[in-house]
Design a protein that fits this description.
Blueprint (H helix, E strand, L loop, with lengths): L2 E7 L5 H17 L3 E7 L3 H7 L6 E4 L10 H9 L2 E2 L4 H8 L1 H10 L7 E5 L13 E5 L9 E3 L4 H9 L5 E6 L4 E8 L2 E10 L6 H5 L4 E4 L6 H18 L4 E9 L7 E8 L9 H8 L4 H10 L3
Parallel strand pairs: 1-2, 1-3, 3-4
Antiparallel strand pairs: 5-8, 6-7, 6-8, 9-10, 9-12, 10-11, 12-13
Helix pairs in contact: 1-10
């Protein structure tokens, strides 16, 4: 019987999400017939390595955020010669770095928002671009540290004063319209989901608080946009060199009618696996239950 070690928890800002993902993955893998070795990955790397000895057949990487999603733990697993789920070092590192990922998407001819990297100290000089725009960390996920500046003034000062995600930040035009996402398994796009936040925008709270958002799958959008979003999700997955499961996030501006403007925001190489997560929901809409999805991800490990 295949033994799967599940790495979850971690030391990033997304630890609580990862603990939730990991607990559900552990239960699903046991239901699917695997022997499971849970490992709460804390700050002691030597302890993680010890818990991976003897080597399991596969590691299910259920970590989110820095050190779990950015190529760091992937490098450790490569060094130890252990197969693991999701993407490798290079793809994980590029996808997590918003500036690097944007360069890859541009080179592949994919539609992205206009923007640039700034030194956060430059915000003291005023707006880095005409409002509305978005300020976000270069290397965080789950909308951690994202600020939407609709007009000049107090909002910019609040973002500057609250900033704690490094010296550099990405600023991008704010795209009006709707939030869409597409899950990918291998080279297959699953579906297009529209995400409707209960309040404000689709931030960390909306993503993980029960009732914080509503998901419409399949999204009620123009069929040409559905086809385009699914195609771009696979192209972005391949451009980064991803493996296994990913999820591509989009903004869709249909404020002037359909079909509108579709913009690729990012690719998540470690999609959430919680009760409110989008990839499992899309898989379920196509008849793949959660244990079957976890089995597919394990069997795609390399």
């Amino acid at each position: 019987m295949t033994e799967v070690a599940v790495l979850y928890g971690g030391i990033s800002a997304e630890r609580e999400v990862s603990l939730n993902s990991g607990a559900q993955v552990i239960a699903a893998l046991r239901t699917a017939g695997f022997t499971v070795r849970p490992i709460d990955a804390g700050a002691d790397l030597a302890s993680i390595i010890a818990q991976l000895t003897p080597k399991p057949d596969v590691v299910f990487n259920a970590l989110h955020g820095r050190f779990g999603e950015d190529g760091a733990i992937q490098g450790v697993l490569d060094w130890m010669g252990i197969a693991y789920t999701h993407s490798g070092v290079r793809a994980s590192a590029m996808a997590m770095d918003k500036d690097a990922a944007k360069a890859v998407f541009l080179a592949a001819g994919l539609p992205v928002a206009q923007g640039r990297v700034i030194d956060i100290a430059d915000l003291a000089d005023g707006d880095p671009m005409p409002p509305p725009y978005v300020i976000k960390p270069l290397n965080e996920g789950s909308s951690v540290g994202v600020f939407i500046i609709h007009s000049s003034g107090d909002a910019l000062a609040q973002a500057r004063d609250a900033w704690r995600w490094g010296r550099r930040a990405m600023v991008e035009e704010f795209i009006l319209g709707r939030e869409l996402t597409v899950g990918v398994l291998g080279n297959r796009a699953l579906a297009v989901t529209e995400i409707i936040a209960t309040e404000g925008f689709y931030d960390y709270d909306a993503k993980y608080r029960p009732g914080g958002s509503r998901h419409v799958v399949p999204a009620d959008i123009h069929p040409d946009i559905t086809a385009r979003a699914m195609r771009i999700a696979v192209e972005a997955h391949n451009a980064l060199g991803c493996a296994g499961a990913t999820r591509a996030d989009f903004r869709y501006d249909d404020t002037k009618g359909e079909p509108g403007r579709l913009v690729l925001l990012e690719v998540n190489t470690q999609p959430g696996m919680t009760a409110t997560s989008l990839l499992p929901e899309q898989a379920a809409s196509l008849g793949m239950d959660f244990p079957a999805l976890c089995r597919w991800i394990v069997e795609a490990a390399s």
